[in-house]
Amino acid sequence: MSDTPVTLSDFQGQPALHLRAPDGAQATVLLHGAHLVSWIPAGGEEQLYLSPTAKYGLGASVRGGVPVIFPQFNERGPLPRHGLVRTRAWQAVESVRRAGAAIGVLRFTDDIATRVHWKQGFEAELTVVVGGNTLEIELAVTNTGETAFEFTAALHTYLRCNELLRAQLEGLQGCAYEDFLLKADGQQWGDVLTFVGAIDRIYHGAAQPLVLRELGRRVRVAMDGFEDVVVWNPGDDGVQQLSDMPDEDWRHMLCVEAALIRQPARLAPGEDWAGMQTLSV
């Protein structure tokens, strides 16, 4: 770890770690939730969706970017929805340039507030590496307690779209999925997934990189350590129930989330786990 003090910037009134690679590629991560809110490849434009009406500050869940979900996905368990770390302050522990990339590391350690809900000792680290046309996001979890625990997790990535109705997601062919809108299971037969409105699915066992493609633009999504993929968009009806997202913006985003849901990870005391999502354009 670098001994150089980490210099923080300001984003929407919140302390943030701003990373800039030598080639100009940039990323911004809030200390609030270790929430990645911006990724701009070298010579490119913003690739993540961030709601212009997102809420910031104590207890807020920022709409857009890449929220960190741990140790529970959604409401699939007894803990608060989407877990314990996305609305809490993390510590920035490293910010360096190395091998042409900018690297930032943020850490969260269990505390009194988390132990009210979950009596486990843990440490979570988010490592962000940006450079060229690539962004790497790694979530690592260590069991620092005295008893084993299980958890689920996700990097809840909001990708920007110019027009969702003309976009397609490739790479899920043959994957079984849970469809929460239809309350049914299914299987993806075609390789191209298109969108006409709301979608809320967990795909299992996606073994190949995915590609979000639209006219003149493509984003490649690769995963390591995450066995599931969540594909989510609220659609025209669902977005009207969201106070922190303009009604028309459902057409300008798609969540493609690296996730570990169907088979939770189990860590004995002292063990660790890591999962990575790599985005490239």
From TrEMBL:
InterPro entries to which the protein is assigned, alphabetical: Aldose_1/G6P_1-epimerase (IPR008183), G6P_1-epimerase (IPR025532), Gal_mutarotase_sf_dom (IPR011013), GH-type_carb-bd (IPR014718)
Annotated Pfam families: Aldose_epim (PF01263)
Catalytic reaction annotation: alpha-D-glucose 6-phosphate = beta-D-glucose 6-phosphate
Keyword entries, A-Z: Isomerase
Enzyme class name: isomerase
Record-level Gene Ontology MF annotations: carbohydrate binding; glucose-6-phosphate 1-epimerase activity
Regions that span the bilayer: none
GO cellular component, one term: cytoplasm
Catalytic machinery residues: H156, E257
Record carries keyword Magnesium: no
Keyword flag Lipoprotein: no
Any one biological process term the GO annotation gives: carbohydrate metabolic process
Enzyme Commission designation: 5.1.3.15
SUPFAM superfamilies: Galactose mutarotase-like
Domain of life the protein comes from: Bacteria
Family annotation (CDD domains): D-hex-6-P-epi_like (cd09020)
Annotated PANTHER family: APOSPORY-ASSOCIATED PROTEIN C-RELATED, GLUCOSE-6-PHOSPHATE 1-EPIMERASE
Family in the record: Belongs to the glucose-6-phosphate 1-epimerase family.
Descriptive protein name: Putative glucose-6-phosphate 1-epimerase
Source organism of the structure: Ideonella aquatica
